[in-house]
Amino acid sequence: MGTNKEQDRWPIGKTKNGSAYRNNLLALAHSTMNNRQTLALLKQQFWTSFGRNMAPVTSADGLKINWINYKTSVKNLQFSMQAGSAAASISIELTHKDADRQVLLYNRLLQVKNVLRHALQEEWQWALQVVDEHGKMISGVDTSLEGVSIYKQDHWPRIISFLKRQAICFEDLHDGC
Protein backbone atom coordinates (compact mmCIF):
# COMPACT_ATOMS: atom_id res chain seq x y z
CA MET A 1 0.00 0.00 0.00
CA GLY A 2 1.53 3.36 -1.09
CA THR A 3 1.56 6.51 0.96
CA ASN A 4 0.51 9.95 -0.16
CA LYS A 5 3.53 12.17 0.44
CA GLU A 6 1.43 15.34 0.22
CA GLN A 7 -0.86 14.14 3.03
CA ASP A 8 2.17 13.08 5.10
CA ARG A 9 3.62 16.57 4.76
CA TRP A 10 0.35 18.29 5.71
CA PRO A 11 -1.27 16.05 8.34
CA ILE A 12 -4.81 17.34 8.16
CA GLY A 13 -6.63 14.11 7.75
CA LYS A 14 -7.45 12.13 4.66
CA THR A 15 -9.78 14.04 2.40
CA LYS A 16 -10.57 13.94 -1.25
CA ASN A 17 -8.63 16.52 -3.31
CA GLY A 18 -7.05 18.10 -0.23
CA SER A 19 -10.16 20.16 0.53
CA ALA A 20 -9.40 20.19 4.28
CA TYR A 21 -5.99 21.71 3.47
CA ARG A 22 -7.64 24.44 1.36
CA ASN A 23 -10.21 25.07 4.09
CA ASN A 24 -7.45 25.39 6.68
CA LEU A 25 -5.62 27.87 4.45
CA LEU A 26 -8.80 29.88 3.93
CA ALA A 27 -9.46 29.92 7.68
CA LEU A 28 -5.88 31.02 8.33
CA ALA A 29 -6.11 33.77 5.68
CA HIS A 30 -9.44 34.95 7.13
CA SER A 31 -7.98 34.91 10.65
CA THR A 32 -4.92 36.86 9.49
CA MET A 33 -7.10 39.42 7.73
CA ASN A 34 -9.28 39.79 10.83
CA ASN A 35 -6.13 40.17 12.94
CA ARG A 36 -4.83 42.93 10.63
CA GLN A 37 -8.18 44.66 10.74
CA THR A 38 -8.24 44.42 14.53
CA LEU A 39 -4.72 45.89 14.79
CA ALA A 40 -5.60 48.70 12.37
CA LEU A 41 -8.74 49.45 14.38
CA LEU A 42 -6.79 49.51 17.66
CA LYS A 43 -4.26 51.89 16.12
CA GLN A 44 -7.04 54.16 14.87
CA GLN A 45 -8.74 54.07 18.28
CA PHE A 46 -5.47 54.93 20.01
CA TRP A 47 -4.83 58.02 17.87
CA THR A 48 -8.46 59.10 18.25
CA SER A 49 -8.12 58.74 22.02
CA PHE A 50 -4.85 60.66 21.96
CA GLY A 51 -6.45 63.44 19.90
CA ARG A 52 -9.36 63.71 22.31
CA ASN A 53 -6.97 63.77 25.26
CA MET A 54 -4.99 66.60 23.65
CA ALA A 55 -8.02 68.60 22.42
CA PRO A 56 -8.21 70.88 25.49
CA VAL A 57 -4.54 71.87 25.04
CA THR A 58 -4.32 74.96 22.84
CA SER A 59 -1.45 77.06 21.53
CA ALA A 60 -0.14 80.10 23.39
CA ASP A 61 -2.50 82.14 21.19
CA GLY A 62 -5.45 80.00 22.30
CA LEU A 63 -5.74 78.30 18.93
CA LYS A 64 -6.71 74.65 18.47
CA ILE A 65 -3.75 72.44 17.53
CA ASN A 66 -3.86 69.35 15.34
CA TRP A 67 -1.41 67.38 17.47
CA ILE A 68 -1.28 64.33 15.25
CA ASN A 69 -0.37 66.39 12.15
CA TYR A 70 1.46 69.17 13.97
CA LYS A 71 2.56 72.04 11.73
CA THR A 72 5.82 73.69 12.79
CA SER A 73 5.55 76.60 10.34
CA VAL A 74 9.25 76.03 9.62
CA LYS A 75 9.98 74.53 6.20
CA ASN A 76 11.76 71.15 6.37
CA LEU A 77 11.20 70.86 10.14
CA GLN A 78 8.70 68.23 11.22
CA PHE A 79 7.38 67.16 14.58
CA SER A 80 6.53 63.46 14.55
CA MET A 81 4.93 61.03 16.99
CA GLN A 82 5.00 57.28 16.49
CA ALA A 83 3.57 54.38 18.45
CA GLY A 84 3.99 50.73 17.57
CA SER A 85 4.12 47.26 19.00
CA ALA A 86 7.26 47.75 21.12
CA ALA A 87 7.72 51.49 21.75
CA ALA A 88 6.41 55.02 21.35
CA SER A 89 8.56 57.87 20.13
CA ILE A 90 8.50 61.56 19.45
CA SER A 91 10.93 63.41 17.23
CA ILE A 92 11.93 66.68 15.66
CA GLU A 93 13.06 65.89 12.12
CA LEU A 94 15.00 67.94 9.59
CA THR A 95 14.00 66.74 6.15
CA HIS A 96 15.74 69.12 3.72
CA LYS A 97 16.65 67.23 0.53
CA ASP A 98 19.96 69.06 0.12
CA ALA A 99 22.49 67.33 2.42
CA ASP A 100 24.52 70.50 3.04
CA ARG A 101 21.40 72.51 3.99
CA GLN A 102 20.32 69.66 6.28
CA VAL A 103 23.69 69.79 8.07
CA LEU A 104 23.35 73.58 8.39
CA LEU A 105 19.86 73.22 9.91
CA TYR A 106 21.10 70.47 12.22
CA ASN A 107 23.94 72.71 13.43
CA ARG A 108 21.40 75.46 14.13
CA LEU A 109 19.36 72.98 16.13
CA LEU A 110 22.50 71.98 18.03
CA GLN A 111 22.99 75.62 19.02
CA VAL A 112 19.79 75.41 21.05
CA LYS A 113 20.50 71.96 22.47
CA ASN A 114 20.62 73.20 26.08
CA VAL A 115 17.38 75.13 25.59
CA LEU A 116 15.78 72.00 24.15
CA ARG A 117 17.09 69.84 27.00
CA HIS A 118 15.67 72.27 29.55
CA ALA A 119 12.32 72.69 27.76
CA LEU A 120 11.84 69.00 26.98
CA GLN A 121 12.97 68.00 30.49
CA GLU A 122 15.25 65.18 29.43
CA GLU A 123 18.13 64.25 27.16
CA TRP A 124 17.03 63.33 23.65
CA GLN A 125 19.00 61.30 21.09
CA TRP A 126 20.67 63.37 18.37
CA ALA A 127 21.28 62.02 14.87
CA LEU A 128 22.91 63.62 11.85
CA GLN A 129 21.88 62.32 8.43
CA VAL A 130 20.42 58.90 9.07
CA VAL A 131 18.14 56.96 6.75
CA ASP A 132 14.56 56.63 7.99
CA GLU A 133 12.21 53.69 7.43
CA HIS A 134 11.19 55.17 4.05
CA GLY A 135 14.77 55.38 2.77
CA LYS A 136 14.86 59.16 3.20
CA MET A 137 17.89 60.96 4.67
CA ILE A 138 16.90 62.92 7.80
CA SER A 139 18.56 64.53 10.78
CA GLY A 140 17.08 65.40 14.12
CA VAL A 141 16.46 64.59 17.70
CA ASP A 142 14.12 62.08 19.31
CA THR A 143 13.19 60.22 22.44
CA SER A 144 11.27 57.03 22.99
CA LEU A 145 9.38 55.07 25.59
CA GLU A 146 10.33 51.40 25.32
CA GLY A 147 8.31 48.38 26.41
CA VAL A 148 4.88 49.69 25.48
CA SER A 149 2.52 48.64 22.71
CA ILE A 150 -0.17 50.62 20.97
CA TYR A 151 -1.99 47.30 20.59
CA LYS A 152 -2.38 46.83 24.35
CA GLN A 153 -5.02 49.20 25.67
CA ASP A 154 -3.65 48.98 29.21
CA HIS A 155 -0.44 50.63 27.85
CA TRP A 156 -2.33 53.58 26.37
CA PRO A 157 -2.25 55.78 29.50
CA ARG A 158 1.57 55.51 29.66
CA ILE A 159 1.96 56.19 25.94
CA ILE A 160 -0.47 59.11 25.96
CA SER A 161 1.15 60.61 29.05
CA PHE A 162 4.60 60.32 27.48
CA LEU A 163 3.57 61.82 24.12
CA LYS A 164 1.44 64.52 25.72
CA ARG A 165 4.18 65.72 28.07
CA GLN A 166 6.74 65.90 25.28
CA ALA A 167 4.34 67.49 22.77
CA ILE A 168 3.29 70.22 25.20
CA CYS A 169 6.92 70.97 26.04
CA PHE A 170 7.74 71.19 22.35
CA GLU A 171 4.76 73.46 21.71
CA ASP A 172 5.82 75.77 24.56
CA LEU A 173 9.33 75.88 23.12
CA HIS A 174 8.04 76.42 19.58
CA ASP A 175 5.76 79.27 20.69
CA GLY A 176 8.70 80.94 22.41
CA CYS A 177 10.78 81.01 19.22
Q: Kindly, what is the distance between the CA atoms of the first and last residues, rounded to a whole number of angstroms?
A: 84 Å
What kind of assembly state do the chains in view correspond to? single chain
Overall geometric form? globular
State the low-pLDDT regions, or none. Answer: 4-16
Trace the largest sheet across and list its strands: 1-2-4-3
Number of strands: 4
Structural class assignment: alpha+beta
Q: Helicity, in percent?
A: 40-55%
Question: Would you write up a description of this structure?
Answer:
By secondary structure, the protein is α+β, with helices and mostly antiparallel strands. The chain contains 5 helices and 4 strands, in the order ααββααββα. The protein has a 4-stranded antiparallel beta sheet with strand order 1-2-4-3. Helix 4 (113-120) crosses helix 5 (156-176).
Question: What can be said about this structure in brief?
Answer:
With 177 residues, the protein is of the alpha+beta class. The chain is 47% helix and 18% strand.
Supply database-style keywords.
177 residues; 18% strand; four-stranded antiparallel β-sheet; alpha+beta; 5 helices; 47% helix
Task: Describe the SSE topology.
Layout: H1 5-9, H2 19-54, E1 77-83, E2 87-94, H3 99-111, H4 113-120, E3 125-131, E4 137-146, H5 156-176
Antiparallel strand pairs: 1-2, 2-4, 3-4
Helix pairs in contact: 4-5
